Each structure stands twice: as C-alpha cells, then as structure tokens.
Amino acid sequence: MASNVNPYRAYKDTQIRTASQGKLIVMLYDEAIRQVDNAISGMDGKTEAVDRVNGALIKAQELITELMASLDFERGGDIAQSLFSLYMFFNQQLVDANIKKDAGPLKEVKTMLLELRSAWAQISGKNPPPDSEPGKTGVNIAG
Questions:
Q1: Contact indicator for 96, 105 with CB cutoff of 8 Å
Q2: Using CA atoms, how far apart are residues 6 and 56, in angstroms rounded to an integer?
Q3: Residue 48 or residue 80, greater confidence
Q4: Residue ranges of domains in the chain, CATH in brackets
Q5: What is the spatial distance between Cα 110 and Cα 125, in angstroms, rounded to a whole number?
Q6: Distance between CA 143 and CA 131 in Å, rounded?
Q7: How far, in Å, CA of 45 to CA of 30, rounded?
Q8: Whose CB among 15, 42, 44, 93 lies 3.0–4.6 Å from 49's, allowing a Cys bridge?
C-alpha cells in the first residue's frame, strides 16, 4: 500500500516541531514577509490578482497575529508592549492596503518586518534560555 505522505510537508512539520521558540519566531517572520511580497507582486502587475492579493494579506495578518500571541508580557516588559503596538500597526497597514489595493504601506511593513526578522535571527542564534525546550512553545505556523 502506497503512502500519501508528502515528503516536503513531513520535513516542514519536523522542522517546526523541533525548532526553538526563537527559530519559530524567525519562521513566522519569513512567512509573513513572503506573503507581503506575494501581495505586492499581485498589486504591481498590470492586472491585479484581487483574490491572490486578498489571500496573501489575510495570511500575513494571521501570521502577525500569531507573533502578537507569542509575546510574553511578564518577561518581555516594555519590549513586548512595543512589539505588540508595532504588530497592531502592521495589521492596520495590511488592512488598509487590502482595502485600497495600495502597495505603498506593504513596502513599509515589509521593510520593518525584515529588520525585526534580522534581529530575531541574531537573538535565536545564541544559546536558548535554560527553560526553553524545542517543541514546547505556543507558536503554531503549521497552518
């Protein structure tokens, strides 16, 4: 009997389950940036692919919301609060861009996402805190 397991999906699932929380955050940023890029490219074309743009922006909003949900306000203090405010701004910009079909706000959000992603990648490259265990986080990007 042949197995219907998609090898790529199985690899991605394993990668997600075994990643540290910092790595999961970087993966969320990577996918959010990819979705914003998809929306920008859909808007920059001669004929807007409205459904594709809408779908990409909704997925980006879901990813930003997941980043918001992963914040630890007790341990993160002012930084967590600042990130929360920034994520709220991102989601508002994504909604506005979707309504107006304007790539301008998306390019601004993408620039900031890239900067934050870079910072998280540097942080997650360091040794994780002793109380963090791979696979024991609340972040779910498996979709």
A1: yes
A2: 23
A3: 80
A4: 21-124 (1.20.120.340)
A5: 22
A6: 26
A7: 23
A8: 42
